[in-house]
Specification:
The chain is of the alpha/beta class. The protein has 10 helices and 10 strands. It has a 5-stranded mixed beta sheet with strand order 3-2-1-9-10, covered by helices on one side. Strands 4-5-6-8-7 form a 5-stranded mixed beta sheet.
């Protein structure tokens, strides 16, 4: 186990910020961890997902499953049933960067999946292999959170690991772990819709600064005992407008 861990918050297609953040990672001494939601919305989701896959396969990075990976898998498994929900949550941007713009006017959801899986056959098995959480020393890393109503947090459902929000944020953390999570942007956690700093409360650390919305991407360095450093990259480039 490496002496330190470098965790990167929700990237959501922001390839320029993602690459810039990676320049702060020391692969010799730091375990790299991606908190999930690499695709959907943003500048170039395909490049973010494929770069993350390469980092896992070549650099032993840990890539946690997020709710957007969950939605992509649901679409790949049942395209007709899940197409509308996936597109509503930024999935069309992912599909267009993997294939081409305007594909929704040319192909049915089933045909889109056939094209995607034929051109990128390793994508679906890779997404299916993503872990739901990672324990490291006194820290627990997870995309959305855990079910704190359970006597043992390991009993959290696979859905809650990637989707839970208020029930996790508001319930007291008695796990004995410091829980590092993404999923819910820190401006929402702060309640002011503008503060993009890390959210730290009750041994919980929220690291999704809402980069894709014009907020910030966080890269957070930990040793086995504590948070050592937060690198915050404010988004001064591409901002997702919900349309393009």
């Amino acid at each position: 186990m490496k002496r330190e861990l470098f965790a990167i918050g929700d990237v959501h297609g922001q390839i320029t910020l993602f690459k810039q953040m990676l320049t702060n990672w020391n692969e010799e001494t730091q375990q790299l961890l991606l908190i999930g939601d690499l695709g959907d919305r943003g500048e170039n989701p395909k490049d973010c997902i494929l770069l993350a896959q390469s980092l896992v396969e070549k650099k032993d990075a840990i890539y946690l499953k997020g709710n957007h990976e969950d939605m992509l898998l649901a679409f790949l498994n049942h395209p007709e049933q899940n197409y509308d929900l996936y597109c509503l949550n930024g999935g069309m941007k992912t599909l267009e960067t993997f294939l081409h713009p305007g594909l929704d006017a040319e192909y049915s959801p089933t045909e889109i999946v056939m094209l995607l899986t034929s051109r990128y056959p390793a994508l679906k098995p890779f997404l299916e292999s993503l872990p739901l959480y990672y324990e490291w020393g006194r820290f627990l890393f997870v995309h959305a959170g855990v079910d704190l109503s359970k006597r043992d947090w390991h009993q959290t459902s696979s859905e809650d690991y990637v989707w839970i929000r208020d029930a996790f944020h508001e319930m007291k953390n008695t796990t004995g772990k410091i829980i590092v999570f993404g999923h819910t942007i820190t401006p929402f956690l702060y309640g002011d819709n503008q503060t993009t700093d890390l959210w730290i409360k009750d041994n919980k650390i929220g690291i999704d600064g809402g980069a894709v919305y014009g907020g910030a991407l966080h890269g957070v360095l930990f040793n086995e005992k504590e948070l050592v450093r937060d690198i915050k990259l404010d988004n001064k480039g591409y901002v997702w407008d919900g349309l393009t």
